[in-house]
Write a structure and sequence with these properties.
- With 179 residues, the chain is mainly alpha-helical.
- The chain is built from five helices and four strands; from the N terminus they run E-E-H-E-E-H-H-H-H.
- It has helices at residues 31-35, 80-92, 112-129, 135-151, 172-178; strands spanning 7-9, 14-16, 67-68, 71-72.
- The strands form two sheets. Strands 1-2 form a two-stranded antiparallel sheet. It has a two-stranded antiparallel ribbon with strand order 3-4.
- Strand 3 (67-68) and strand 4 (71-72) form a beta hairpin.
- It is globular, with a radius of gyration of 18 Å.
Length: 179
Amino acid sequence: STIYPGIHYTDSHASLQPMCLTVCFPGTFPRQILERSDIRVHISVSIDEEYGTFTTPVIEVALLDLHHRGGLLHCSGGSDDVSSNLSLDMSNVGEPTISFLPLPPSFDYVNRADWETVTQQIQEWVTTEVATESSLWMWGCNAFWLAFIAAYPSFLMGKWPMWDPRIPLEGSFIEEWLQ
């Protein structure tokens, strides 16, 4: 994915604002697999070469322990507690709350109707809550296209509803899909 950080301007300089990213791992593993393995996650961050002489990205890791009532909550699991915690974290960095996350526990990844619903929720959020200059704008557009293709996998070869024209047909996910 490509993301765009906010820019902080001073009289004679500018700097990129820090970003908070959450990486979720929906699904479960058989317990015996995790008890005998270290799970490695490879994350790569880079900046365009032309800016490399001015800055180098630094990744800091903070683990989130999302246990609630004895059961592990997944990214797609629902909990008012987790929702409010994520909302609080997002409001601290000046971005709108991501209202369609976490997905409800009843969300079925293979059910087209569930994808249609989340597509509408994302479209509403992107077009009414997120400023086009925000670092969440392109992320939201990519999320929209991911959900849209899940809901309408025959996009461009079948029937699909018109999406809000404020959401451009661009972004890393949809551009790859269209190739």
